[in-house]
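Record pair follows.
FIRST:
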Amino acid sequence: MSESTSDRQVVLDLSREEAWVAHVALTREIDRQLDEGEKPVRERALLSALERDEPVDPGALRTLRDAVVAYLDDAPDRDVVTGRAVLGTIDAALA
């Protein structure tokens, strides 16, 4: 699950496979934004926080959720179940 901190920030406890799907989803979103001339500041900060197992706020969790949902639209079959597990972890952390 997730470890809640006192200021509503959480550290997501993801398996190696789940962390990989989250990473791929965020990097795809970063690439999409760069291709559209946008600056993915929030997504880059979120990716860095996840890679360092740092706590993230609910807004960052929603950003991650959006990225994973978008990724699952055309994800390889091998990532679908894992991606859904990531969504479950995010939803539990946001509840």
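SECOND:
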Amino acid sequence: MDLSGLRELIYKTIDACYSGIYCAEAVKFFKDWHCDEKILKNAKEGYTIVVEKNNQIIGTGTIVGDEIMRVFVNPAFQKRGVGKLIMRRLEQKAVSAGIEVLKLDASLPSKRFYELLGYVLLEETFVEVENNKRLDYYKMQKTLS
């Protein structure tokens, strides 16, 4: 697995899509949360998809048990079906494992994307980050058929 390429994709997407929506402390929290150790741990525990184009990583997503995580698409390739492809593959993996309900945490800018794929809002929640600031996000789920 190209760990540095994955990290670069994740950080680039966080910078492009979260800055201006989330405070700087929340952006830092996202980057710390998606550290190399967690990327590797989740890849070993579950299943990670990496999408490449011209030898460049343009998308990724991971499933561990019944939870989808770390779905990121290079901003230059968003709204071109890459995210849907990743989600479809992760959902297929879940179905083949006998999972009936998938869960995920959605950032503010990604909520609509997941709703369009059939995920429903369970809860609006937050985590406190540095300087007593908040990182708001959504807990969502989808029943697979």
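COMMENT: The mean pLDDT is 97.
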